[in-house]
Each structure stands twice: as structure tokens, then as C-alpha cells.
Amino acid sequence: xxxxxxxxxxxxxxxxxxxxxxxxxxxxxxxxxxxxxxxxxxxxxxxxxxxxxxxxxxxxxxxxxxxxxxxxxxxxxxxxxxxxxxxxxxxxxxxxxxxxxxxxxxxxxxxxxxxxxxxxxxxxxxxxxxxxxxxxxxxxxxxxxxxxxxxxxxxxxxxxxxxxxxxxxxxxxxxxxxxxxxxxxxxxxxxxxxxxxxxxxxxxxxxxxxxxxxxxxxxxxxxxxxxxxxxxxxxxxxxxxxxxxxxxxxxxxxxxxxxxxxxxxxxxxxxxxxxxxxxxxxxxxxxxxxxxxxxxxxxxxxxxxxxxxxxxxxxxxxxxxxxxxxxxxxxxxxxxxxxxxxxxxxxxxxxxxxxxxxxxxxxxxxxxxxxxxxxxxxxxxxxxxxxxxxxxxxxxxxxxxxxxxxxxxxxxxxxxxxxxxxxxxxxxxxxxxxxxxxxxxxxxxxxxxxxxxxxxxxxxxxxxxxxxxxxxxxxxxxxxxxxxxxxxxxxxxxxxxxxxxxxxxxxxxxxxxxxxx
Amino acid sequence: xxxxxxxxxxxxxxxxxxxxxxxxxxxxxxxxxxxxxxxxxxxxxxxxxxxxxxxxxxxxxxxxxxxxxxxxxxxxxxxxxxxxxxxxxxxxxxxxxxxxxxxxxxxxxxxxxxxxxxxxxxxxxxxxxxxxxxxxxxxxxxxxxxxxxxxxxxxxxxxxxxxxxxxxxxxxxxxxxxxxxxxxxxxxxxxxxxxxxxxxxxxxxxxxxxxxxxxxxxxxxxxxxxxxxxxxxxxxxxxxxxxxxxxxxxxxxxxxxxxxxxxxxxxxxxxxxxxxxxxxxxxxxxxxxxxxxxxxxxxxxxxxxxxxxxxxxxxxxxxxxx
Amino acid sequence: xxxxxxxxxxxxxxxxxxxxxxxxxxxxxxxxxxxxxxxxxxxxxxxxxxxxxxxxxxxxxxxxxxxxxxxxxxxxxxxxxxxxxxxxxxxxxxxxxxxxxxxxxxxxxxxxxxxxxxxxxxxxxxxxxxxxxxxxxxxxxxxxxxxxxxxxxxxxxxxxxxxxxxxxxxxxxxxxxxxxxxxxxxxxxxxxxxxxxxxxxxxxxxxxxxxxxxxxxxxxxxxxxxxxxxxxxxxxxxxxxxxxxxxxxxxxxxxxxxxxxxxxxxxxxxxxxxxxxxxxxxxxxxxxxxxxxxxxxxxxxxxxxxxxxxxxxxxxxxxxxxxxxxxxxx
Amino acid sequence: xxxxxxxxxxxxxxxxxxxxxxxxxxxxxxxxxxxxxxxxxxxxxxxxxxxxxxxxxxxxxxxxxxxxxxxxxxxxxxxxxxxxxxxxxxxxxxxxxxxxxxxxxxxxxxxxxxxxxxxxxxxxxxxxxxxxxxxxxxxxxxxxxxxxxxxxxxxxxxxxxxxxxxxxxxxxxxxxxxxxxxxxxxxxxxxxxxxxxxxxxxxxxxxxxxxxxxxxxxxxxxxxxxxxxxxxxxxxxxxxxxxxxxxxxxxxxxxxxxxxxxxxxxxxxxxxxxxxxxxxxxxxxxxxxxxxxxxxxxxxxxxxxxxxxxxxxxxxxxxxxxxxxxxxxxxxxxxxxxxxxxxxxx
Lengths: 517, 322, 330, 346
Known about the structure:
heterotetramer, B: Rossmann fold, Rossmann fold, 2 domains, 11 helices, 12 strands, disordered N terminus, D: 17 helices, globular
């Protein structure tokens, strides 16, 4: 693997920046202290590091979204100074950000050519754009309605549109920021296939991820960032998870989490043939006290819909939700929460925390009604409660007054969960609680769930991470195409069996085989 | 979705309106229909008064009235639009108090083309367009202002007189004319107002303006108000500042003004007898509709006269007050 | 709901046209004099003036902004033009100057909003005050002169039964529709209003696009102001003021999304026609002015209900149904 | 609990920390903190304005004049506090100006009918609150954008005022209490100003020290998260609109007490925009979440100070609007420059 060097970032320095991306006046805070990354044509280069390690910042610098203050950045051999995003795109660099850069009400075609529309003279060349778009989509081996507005596409479809755009722009460098975070195993596989092909066509791919196993599946080399500094670039074949993890966090962690088991109590949450708003097949599940129940399935299998129906975020079309034997189906969400439900949605930044609000408020929001005489909120009690939680969850923050957006992803997630811990809740519904969370934070969250179960709480955890769901759950429900395809006891659960149950083309035979009945 | 949306919106709303409109006011019956067009009858007793008088007279003479109100200071375009609507309905006569003496010209031209006689009340139209109307029944607002100011100057007879002016809304013809009149009258006594601010035909605004003026001029002796509709606010301000000795003079001749004179709160109120304007205009309009009055036979300008009402003549003025 | 890129303008236009014809005929049954050519052409003439202002407003709304200065610009332009004419300047020259002023104020808005990144609602309200105030001041200096007849006739006369102003408005509409459809600028306009950050990241010159909308809005407002001046034959310093909200109302009734990214110029035009048709009907029926306000108010809300909120309403209905069903069940 | 059950985690978390913390931290000196506090910035702006006026504007600097300015700012301030609630949840209310007229005529009509001032005031406030509830329901449940709902609402309220008053001014039956409201002084401070201050104080407590107030801000920043955290979003939104209109009604009562007559056209669109301007000049964001009671009050005082100076300086009335507009733009630019300078995220 010795293609030409497409990109060479050496000792990049980047200070804390303002709206314009300029260093905040008088700041001495380095987001990137000494970050280096070299990308060769025809390689997939993994970039790993804990949240807040500076991965995204580095990518933004490479993408030209941010200027850099120190070090050097050579693209195709020439040093890059001041630049603009559009210029960078013409350099053949395409970035697929975590939150997609598509305009919801524009069509697929318009989005694919946004900012670099094809023209014939002064006029848009709609025919040609359509043709190229269709072609690019086709090469991905999928079918997407080119005229559909993007808001109507699924997450993975939107991602594919972005990749198609990159291909169409003949990009030489493709940067993906945690592309698999919101993809199902199935879709991830398809994505990797694609990346392998692009690699063979001589593209350079930078692949940011939290999932180490993915590093080994897809990457040729892996660069590790820690607190804004490069802690090495390794040839993937020649290294191990442990080595990488060590360079990320500077200490050793067991690859798989071992949880101490507890014996479940009586049923506390039950759904009877619930059909969530928007349809799907009736789903019936039960969760016991002291039990962690996993809900596996591909994205779009209906897991989130079921979860939202359980907590009352959306109405159900039919069926009943029972909490402690009470039928709460007709209850508004607030009433269910008061009755002891807790919900941590999958989209942390948009639904889990309120970014501009202080940690204090984010943690206390569920407790305000109980923090003072009548309608009042006694600041002292609110602060005390929040401070205690920050302690308990070891949330990393200077003060409880700093806005949530100043926290790393993992810490934000702890806040999102923490607001439900001031009081013991009966049922915790967690949707992808560890997505985009770094290793150590992930473990802390596991311990949280255990602690909840240990004191008799019930946890329903949605996760696309099979090792995680298997190691954490007492029982696993697998969803496929909007139905509960199977219930698997932990003892029978293997990545293979669960995966089989998840995949759309599984037959009844496979199921019985997988469940081992 | 939106496509259907627009259409259905159009139809739905159209139906809604049709449903809510009163049984066609302008049925094609024999009784002559006189169209009335006025800026506003809201919060403006003067306009309300002549409209009322005209309506009464028309109905007394067996006609029906089609009243269209533009609805406020800024509705200049709306008034000419409404005049055209009256022409469209082929009314037998139009009595109008133009908000803008020039802006109505195209509309009045259409009326003339349609052979509909037009009678102007209170406000003139731009000079040189006498062909467009039968007669103008009005008082000269400049004169009204001048008379009032002159009365003040002569009675007070103090070369150092401290006078403030509360103007009408900027941009309104009547307001500008009365202001001009005030200044002319004061100039006749070599007096320049110590302050001049707009009350925008609005008591609250007049109040605020007056309060502030009193701050700058604690020794103020008199206030000239462009209209009775701002007098309440002005008096409140004076009372609030304990300056009840300040002389207040206003134009209109509304009950507010005249009663103020009787109560001694107002020194003088220049009345223009809008009711006379309204009924006279109505009489001519009905006459011409009935053929008893020859088109073109009327004086182009009929001055309905202004009276400066003081304690002496307040009693009889009260009878005519509106 | 709508798919902007691929909508079939003809289908939509015809649909709206049909709807309007139906409405006219329907109303004509109940309202005497409404369905007469003179009356309809008068309605169109008034709508034409508003629609030109509304086109500018639409472009701004597409970017997710709003331009409250429209009315002030209309007043000021008229006053400036009439003052120039009264001081001996030939009217075409005066008009050019007027349009220049519109362009200037539009640019001011553009700079404040796109460069200084201030909220358009309050920023354009500021320029509204400035324009309206200057109009009053100038008018107070020059009095109330009138325009020469040939200019006035342009604002009122019709050729082959179609008012000249209407032709002008339609011409402007066609140009804008074509330009927004065939140029990158059209896409960029919607992209900017749809998702500013994304548009920026995609290399759309957002600042310039944003600014362009306000500049054009200013120019169109000036055009509308000139048309209004020509119709009235003079320039009252207040005559433009109602048009800010009327323009917003026209857009809203035309289903333009106040949050940006979605909307159609022709629909705003239709909204304008609709608005003045209703007014005209109410005038013909002698509806009291405050009743007229009431109806306009209800209409604005109703229009949004049908055009924008239709689907949302259906969702709600079903939601409510679900909940009630469960309550009964429980 | 997690720490107790797993000290390992506690330890593990700390290692990357110092760096992390320091990275996100920012040296915040006292001056920095002061200059960074928008409310203090506003206060400074106001004082500078007053100082300048004191020097440049004849007769501005008298206690009595300041008192006048404050009295004139009192009703605007109350209305602005009301609209603050709506702006905080990311809404807007254009109907405020029309509610002035509506409440004014309702007040006087009921007064004439019943002769009872408390009843009349209750009716006026009730009318406002009712109207606000209507706005809120349309916005929250029927999902009509607030801008539209309240634009339509303006016309409707305006029309209702005309209908009730038959389009004419209604003279207020003499009532010592009501007259006293506008003339009365306590320790040299006008009752109206005291009333406004009390309202402000209550609003401040509600916004800063109650579940409701905290929820309002939460909803303003992110209603989805707030909802999923158990905040009753619909209730909050509707209440905010009700408060806004209720406050507008109270402002109308205050203003009516000053003119002592019921005016259907009291307020109007200018009042609406004046109110919004006061809020925005007071540092309120039109995008929700950001805004303070104190700031809004200062905004109102600033506006009235400008009005006051315009009259004191005998500036031609035609130029009022122009000056106002200019000041708004300047104020915005200054604020923008300030936050740019401080590198605040907007």
C-alpha cells in the first residue's frame, strides 16, 4: 500500500474558536495541540479517539470548515492556507458529517448538486444533473427517488445521497464522521462494501469511528487522537484492540463488559399487541423488575417507534401499554413519567439535552415540580440535587452552570440519563444510550444500568451494538420489519443468532434454529 | 397538496364571504342611492357628524345611502378604490371627503365619465379640477386655525405669550392646514410657538406630547390643539402637572370641545358645523338625482362658515355641537 | 407537502386559475356589479400593484426572512418621484431615481441582515421607520403636487381591456418565475431558507443570496410604489404603509412558508388578487370597515389552515381519535 | 450510585479530564463577566443615553422629567414584559397593539354598565387573557404559525373594539380611584410606575424561580427535549400567549387611566411594534430562550427616553418615525458588534 500521498496534516494546532472559526480573543485553549494525519491513495484510514479528543475538529480543519493556527496541511502536495469550503470541495475532498448536510425540502438531485450546480450557459442543466444523479445512486446499488424531498428519506438513504454526491464530484478524499453511528449492522455492511470498492478505485478514505471492531473490519491504518494530540498511527493488521484503546485512554480496559447478574422480580412493564402510530405489527413484550431487556433490530425495524409508544411520546394505533398492571395507554406522556417511567431518546443533541441550558437546568428539568413549595423552585435545592448527580455520574464539568453544549458527547449523554436518576423510576426506556459515546463513558453507562436493575428498576435498552446488547441484557427481543421476530434468553444469544433474527430475509427455519427451540 | 390548498382556500373563503355579506345593500330599486366616502368615522366625531347628518337627510328625502369608510390615516389608496366601487355600482350621487385632494382625482374622473355628480365635503381637491365636482361645501381649515390663533393672540395681548401646538397626524391635509393656520395667526402677533409636536389625532399620544412639552416649558400659557379629539389627553396632562391655568384652544366644535368651553376648561373652540355640511351636500345630491337641481348650477365653493365659540356663544353652539 | 424542484407550474397555475374563475362566477351570482369587466379589471389593477410588492416579499420569505420596510419604501419612492416631477424633471427620469432609492434601501436591509446578521424582522422594521419618516418629511416640504397625465394614464388605462399595470406585473412574474427556476440562484435562495448551515457548508454563497433577496425586494417595492403613485396620480406620504402587511397577507394566503424554503411567486400573486377581490366584494356589499378587518383577519388564518396546515390538521384529528378511543377503552 | 458500585469508573474518568476541562474552560475575569452580562450592558447604555441627554437636551435633566419618562414607560414596559413570555418560547404576538383598544373599550363599557371599577378592570383583563388563550390554542393545537395567528388576531381584536364602541370614543365615568391611578404619587413615584415595578418583580420571580418560568425557557430553547423530559409544552405555550395578552390588557388599563376615556383605536400596529422593539432593544432574542425582565424594562425606558428627547428638541414631527427607525438599527448594530467582540455564539 504505497500510493501517492493525498493529504498530509502535520502538527496541526487549533485554538478554541468563535462563530467565524477564528480563535476567541485571548484564549489559550487548544482544541488541537499537535494533531497529525497522513492519507495515502487507496487506503481506508481510521481515526479514533474519545469524545472531545479533537477528531471532529481535525476533520473540520481538513475540510476547510475551520482555519488552523499551527502546523502544516498539504493537500496533493501543495500547502493549504486560507480557503473556503467550496474551494476544498473542488480540491476533491468530500466530508460526510454526522449530522447530514442536506436541505430537507430540496430534492435529492438539488441536494446532490447544491453549491456546484451544472449549467448550460447561464441556465441550470437539469437534464444532465438528473442523469448524473441517477448514475451515482445506481453505482451505490440502491434505488432512491431522485425527486423526493430529502426529509422523506431514511437516515441511511440520506447518507447514501451524500456519498453519491461525493462520488459524483469525483472526490479523491472521502471523509466519514462516524458514518455507522446511525446505521444498522446490515446497512453498515453495505457501506463497508462500498468503501472497499472506492479504496480499490484509488480513493483515500478517512473513517472516524467509536467502534473498534469496525476499525479492524475496514481500515488499513488507524490514527489515534487523545486530548488534541496524535498518539500514533498504526498499521491495523499489526495492532490489537487493547493497543488502540490504551493509546486512546492511556489505560487498559477489558474488551467486553462483564456484568453481575441479578434475579428479576415481577412484571412491571407490559405491552399488549401495541401498534405504534404509523403502523407496524402488534408488539407484545414484558419487562420485569431488576431486569435489563434488550431490544435489537435494524434501524427502521420499529424499535424507536415502540419505545416512544411505551412512554407516550406518540399515540398508539391499537393495543395497550401496562405499567405495574395499570393500563396507561390513554395517559399523556407527563402522566406516565410521573407514574415512574423514564425515557432517554436516541438523538441526544436534539432530544436528550437542551444544549444552551446549564447542566444544572438540564438535570433538574424533571424534578422542578418537586423542588420547592408550590410552583416555586428553590435554587439551593435544585443546585444541591444537580451537584450530587454530577458527582454520582462523574460528569466532567467545571461548574454545573456551564451550558450543556460545552460538554463532550459522553458527558451530555450522562446528563440526558442523569435527569431521570434524581428519583428512582420504575421503568427506564433507553434508546441507543451509548451511541457516539467513548469507551470509558460507555462503561460508566453500563454500570448505571446495572445499578438501576440492582435496586429493582427495569431497563428496556435499544441498541444496534450486538456485543453490547448481548453482554448487557437478561433477555433480548429482536424486531424485524416492525414486528417482534423473537425473544431470546441471554444464554442462547450470540451475535450470529441475533443478527439472523434481525435480517429481513430470515426464514422461520432460521428463527427456530437461532432461538434453539 | 399546496396546489389543491390554494384553490380550495379561494373557493372556501369566497363562499364564506358570500355567506356573510348582508342582503345586497344596493338593490336596483327606484329609490336613488347616494354613495358616501369618508376616511373614518371611528374616533373622529367630526367625520362621523357630517356622515350622520347626510345619511339622515338622504333617508328623509326617500333615498338610500351606500357608506364606504376607508378606515384610517393611511388608507389613501383604499379610498380611491372605494370611490371606484361606488362608480361601479352606478350610484346616483357621491358625497366624499377626500383624504388626499390629489389621490382621488383619477377616481373622480371615472365618476365624471360615468356621469355621476360628486359633492365634496370638508376637504377640497387639487385646484384646476373644478370640472370633476358639482360643489365643495367646506370650511377653510387654514382660516379656522388662523382665526383661533388670532383670537388667542388678541385676547391675551401678550407679546411674550408662551404657546404650544399639538398637531394632527403628520401627512394629513386637514392637520397640516390647521397647523399652517395656527402659525399664521400667531405670526400676526409676532409670536412663535415654544413647542410644536404631533398628537396624531390620538388622546394617548397627545397626552404624552403635552406632558413632555410641559417639562420643557413649565411657564406655558396656552395650547392650540388641531382637533377636539386630542383635547381630553391635553387636559389630562395639564391636570396631571397641576397647570390648570393654561389656556386650551381647539378646532372642531364637537360636544367635547363645546362642553369644555362651558365648563371653562377650554378657552375657545373653533366650530365648523359638519352637520350643516353633511345635510346640505345630501340635499343637493338628492335634488340632482331627482332632477330638481340642475347639474352645474351650484356654486363651486360653499363656505359653511366657522365660528369661534367662547363662553358668550357656547350655549347656542352646544345645540349644533356633535 | 410540495416538491419545489419538480412541481409542474402549469398544472398548479391552471388549477389556481380554474379555482379563481369558479370563485368569480360563484360570487357574481350573489354580488351585483362584481362580475363586470370594468370591476374585475379594477380588482386586477389593484392586485397587480400589491402582487409586485408581494413577489419581493416572497423571495425574502423563501430565505426565511421578512421585509417589513416594503410599505415605507413604496411611500418614499412615490413622494420622491412626485417631488422631482414637480420640480421639472421628466417623469421617466424621476422613476429611475425612485427605483434607485428602492435599490438603495434594499441594499441597506441586505447589509444589515446578511452581513451584520441581525434579525430581519426588527432590522427591516427599523428601515421601515426611516423610509416612512423621510416620506413624511419630504411631502411636508413639497406639499401635494400631481403627476403629468400621461404618467397617470399608465397607472390607470387598459389596453385591450387589460390594465397596463397588470401587464407589467405579469411580465415581472414571468421573469422572476423563469429566473428562479432555471438559475442556480433560485435553488440557492430556497436552500438558504431551508437550511442555512447546510447551504453554507455546500458552498452556497449564503450572504450574497440572502442579500440579493432584500435588494430585489427593495427594487420591487419601489416598482410597486411607482405603480401606486401612477394609479393615484400623486404621492401621499402614507399611501404605501398598508402594503407591508397586505404583502405578507398575500404571501400567506398564497401558501408561502414563513419559515423559509417553500413557496411560489405565482401563488403570492394569486393571494394578492384574492385579497383585493374580497375587499371589492365587501365594498360592493357596503360591509362596514371593521367587519372588513374581521374578515381579512379570519381569511389569513383560514388560508393558512387550508394551504399549510391541512396535513397537520389531519394528523391531529387522527391523534385525537386515537386518544379518545383509548379513553373509552380504558 | 455508579461511583459507589464502580470506583474504577470514577478513576477512569478523571484521567483525560484536566485537559478536557481546561480546554472547555475560559478565563473569566470580573470585567469580562460584567461586560459579558447583557443586562448590565443595557443599563450602561441607558445611563450613557441619560447622561448625554442631560448635557445636550435642555430641560431633560429634571427629576420631574425623568418621572414623566418613567410614567410614560410604565404601560409600554408592562406590555413588553408580556410579549417577553411569548418571545421566550420562540413565538411572536402581533395582536398586542389591537388589544390596547379592545381592553380599553371593554373597561369603559363595563364601567358605564355596572359602575364598578374592579369589575370593569377584571373584564378588561379577562378579555385580554381570553384572547390570548385563543391565540395560544390556534398556535399550539391547530399549529398555525404564531405570526399568522396573531396577525389575523390583530384585525379581529381591532374589529371587536370598533363593534363594542360603535366606533366612537367612550368617556370614562369619573372614579376617584381610577383618576388617582394616573395622578397619584408614592414617595414621589407615580402609582403607574410602582404598578409596573410590581408587575416586573412578579414576572421576574415567575421566570427565574418557578417551575413554569424554567419550563418556558426550556421550551424556548428546545421544545422536543422539554416535552420528552415531562414539561407540558402545550400548557406552557398557551399560558405564555395568555400572559402576553393579559399584560397587554393591563397596559391598556394603565393607558386608559391616563387619558380617562375608552379609545377603540388605542395602540394599533405601532404599539405592537413598539412593544416588540422594547423587548428586542432589551436584549430579547426573537428565536426563543434568551431574554430578561430587567432588560425588557430598560428597553421600554430607552424608547420612551428617545420619544421624550424628540419632543424636547422640537424635532419636526414628520421625522419621529425616521429617528425611531434609525435608533433601532443603531441599537441592533451596537449589540451585534458587542456580541461579536465578546465572541458570543449567536
